[in-house]
Automatic annotation (TrEMBL):
Keywords: Cell membrane, Chloride, Glycoprotein, Ion transport, Membrane, Phosphoprotein, Potassium, Potassium transport, Symport, Transmembrane, Transmembrane helix, Transport. This is Solute carrier family 12 member 5b. Residues 135-310, 410-706 form the Amino acid permease/ SLC12A domain. It catalyses: K(+)(in) + chloride(in) = K(+)(out) + chloride(out). It is a multi-pass membrane protein. The gene is slc12a5b. The chain crosses the membrane at residues 131-150, 156-185, 197-219, 225-246, 266-283, 289-308, 427-447, 467-493, 505-524, 567-585, 591-612, 624-649. It holds the Pfam family AA_permease. Residues 969-982 have a biased composition (Low complexity). GO terms for biological process: cell volume homeostasis; chemical synaptic transmission; chloride ion homeostasis; potassium ion homeostasis; potassium ion import across plasma membrane.
Amino acid sequence: CSDSLLFLLQSERKDGGGSDMKSEHKLLIFCAIMHILTYFPSLCACVCTGDGNPKESSPFINSTSSSDVEKSQQYDGKNMALFEEEMDTSPMVSSLLSSLANYSNLTQGSKEHEEWEWNGRQYRIAPRMGTVMGVYLPCMQNILGVILFLRMTWLVGIGGVLGTFTIVFMCCSTTMLTAISMSAIATNGVVPAGGSYYMISRSLGPEFGGAVGICFYLGTTFAGAMYILGCIEILLIYIVPAAAIFKLEGLEGPEAEAALLNNMRVYGTIVLTLMSIVVFVGVKYVNKLALVFLACVILSILAVYAGVIKSSFDPPDFPVCALGNRILVSKGFDVCAKTIERDNGTVTTKLWKMFCDSEFLNATCDEYFINNNISQIQGIPGIRSGILNLFGYFMEKGDFIEKRGLMSASYPDAPVTNANRYVLADITTFFTLLVGIYFPSVTGIMAGSNRSGDLQDAQKSIPVGTILAILTTSTIYMTCVVLFGACVDGVVLRDKFGEGVNGNLVIGTLAWPSPWVIVIGSFFSTCGAGLQSLTGAPRLLQAIARDGIIPFLRIFGHGKANGEPTWALLLTASICEIGIIIASLDSVAPILSMFFLMCYMFVNLACALQTLLRTPNWRPRFKFYHWALSFLGMSLCLSLMFICSWYYAIVAMVIAGCIYKYIEFCGAEKEWGDGIRGISLSAARYALMRLEEGPPHTKNWRPQILVLVSLDAEQNVEQPRLLSLTSQLKAGKGLTIVGTSVEGTYLNNHPQVQKAEQSVRKLMETEKVKGFCQVVISSNLRDATSHLIQAGGLGGLRHNTVLVSWPRNWKLPEENHRWRNFIEIVRETTAGHLALIVPKNISAYPSNGERFTEGHIDVWWIVHDGGMLMLLPFLLRQHKVWRKCKMRIFTVAQMDDNSIQMKKDLLTFLYHLRLDAEVEVVEMVNSDISAYTYEKTLVMEQRSQILKEMHLTKNEREREVHSEKIAHPTSPTVPTPSATTPGEEVQMTWSDDGEKGKIPPVVNPENIKDMFNMKPNQFNVRRMHHAQKLNEVIVKKSQEAKLVLLNMPGPPKNRTGEENYMEFMEVLTEGLNRVLLVRGGGREVITIYS
């Protein structure tokens, strides 16, 4: 192969373009070689590296190839010759697919999955967890828990079967709809470990993601507090009541309640400390015990179902003692009777002693005790008993637990005595309270998505496992509601702590074979759930901290050498202690309900937005979703928040809102392709289409400014105060485009453009200018500026005002391009009906940090420009720099004007415009033109002509000749120098009547001599006289003003006398510190109408 190519080259060198026969011979040889290479690709490896084996380059961006020769060697044998020039930026498909196939989920929040690096470490072998072990069972463990064992029977007793079933159905429907939305998001691409926060933040943006992530973290933390409180409640009430530090015996009412809460606080703090130590020492032990805790939950539930079945043919014996219709606390007596027969006599019982002052039959007893009989109620009559408990029984705090249907002789006005002998309601109950207490029992549906990094196929396991877990737990909850209502008497159901059934756990009284199965099982279940919360919450906080969207949380992103979140665990334990101090499970449950509901609400919102926006990347593998279901789930979450507790809901929203604004204020520099950005794009497109319908009304007109800035050799802005003025003029309202230009070509000068754009954006941020930056590259700066003026903006959102600084040092010969470009800008803005603002002496303008405590903004209203001169001072005075400056308006009256009437009319006009300003009419009397004016005009014209003669390059001369021909196509010839007089040669004047300047001749001594003998043009003299007289008046009145605004005259219509125009502007503004020259855009910008 190589020999054939060498032969071909040698023959070409020898022939040197010989006969056609030799060319055909060489062509045939070349075609034959290419044919062989096509069918035998392995022969392409004839050019080999040192060992004869072709190398394969790294397929990723920025691979390091030292030379084109090496690059060609790297891809020999790959059939990639056509694309080898692009291998630095475009990897080979085989390598790309290999990297995606070996993708490893990173710890959520530590690094974006798009930005992972090799870092010299081996791929982590992903654990092969399926749907059951990875999703289904963890969700079951997190959903089933403390509420089921400690509060479900009480909920049924208070709310009734119908009310509680409604609550369960509503909450389970909410979690099911949320699971559907979550499944759609989770199957729309790879979700790293800790997926719940990841899904929300990447779908709704860093602001919503941070706010909802913190709420989810707080919910998980307070869930830990709730589980610990449940654990302590089981321990102190049902397992070892004697362990209470604050004894309850002999205490009544608030004192007994305070003692119970203090016991919960002390033991809760101890248990929280022990659990935190366990989590700190090693989370692997918590994970190993997870299945044990789950087994306890499942065995307890099976025991309850076994007890229900047994109650149908052999109900357990759990009698409840009632006095009248009031249920008695079972402690303190052994026989449910007032007296008993013993040894042919009647003796009193311990119950008699509780209500009477002695054990004798003639003792003085409690009135209610005397008037009512003692009865015994079967607490668990069984499922075949026919009891239903369909309707609710809401009570006030301190009410007696009473049996419906039993007779009771009581007097409403009689004082209550011996209240501690009865079972009382510990809290005031109502329907919405029950919702808030129950909802935490259906949380935990995101346990599977949080483990997405450990799943074999997360996109299949998460939807199936989560939905099956919700269906299973919902079935358990709904059947438990019905079975509890059908098996257990209402008074036992309403007995929250089992005081009427010998202190037994109410659900335990129904279980088989022993109540201790439920007690021990629920105790370990709550311990396990608490450990899981203290394990998951710090990792969630660590993920949020490592994302860097909330600056003050960054310290919690650090941890031990193995990545364990030590600082986050410390904060979690501290927040969890707040829930422990609250000490009441019924008070903590609604708090965490708020945070979980807010999290679920935004999951549904994320799915709905992605579905409605139809973003190209929204392609979930889970197809059984719809935006209407997501909106229904979001509505249910929002409704449940206010149903549970409207004030907790407001507090949760305020917390989320504060976090949202904090992230927005700090500037979360994250672009995650979120749905909120999609909404912004859709809204922007709609608004732009609406703006295309017509120009804005005068009432809505505001300066949409294009700021033209120039750059120095280091690509830094030369006039930073120009952006300060922009900020003061805009105050963050409307459109602002800061445009600049770079000379060159796009391919060669793109790095300079990036540097210039970065410099401009940094200055905009410093000066607090909210807007856009646009850098244009062109072969010359004049065309680049023209492109900015023409093409800036988009659709109806275009600039209507151009802000450009007065050219510095324009009189210097080497800077004459500056004033030429400036005059072209004035012409183009006039042609485009754009307003023009030109600050003169821009370096003397105040910065945003300065304040004027007094002074005036003077407006010299000479010609009507649509109201720009009136509007600009009003806008400036909205800024704190100019706020204390007063506005003065001067207008010029001629000899034939009635100055008194002009002042009255102007005051009326300002009154209708709702502007506060002092008004003064200045009379300018006609005067003779002074010798100084003649001299100044003559010097101006001589200077202009000398510059034209001495510095006009050949290209400029040709351009002027060409422009004259275009402007005057009817002139067949151009006068020769011999046909003109010296005076005509130098009259490059600014004339309104179209007087044409002559083409300058070639420089020669005679022309220069004629310049010093020339006379000034009378038209220029007259304009110079007017500029000078007006300047004298302005300086006299406004020399001490902080800012002077005046009308800017237009440039000459033809291109002769342009430098004279610049001289006139200099004379007009001479002696003034800060001047703002203003030209209107040809339309009214201010109106007197409402």
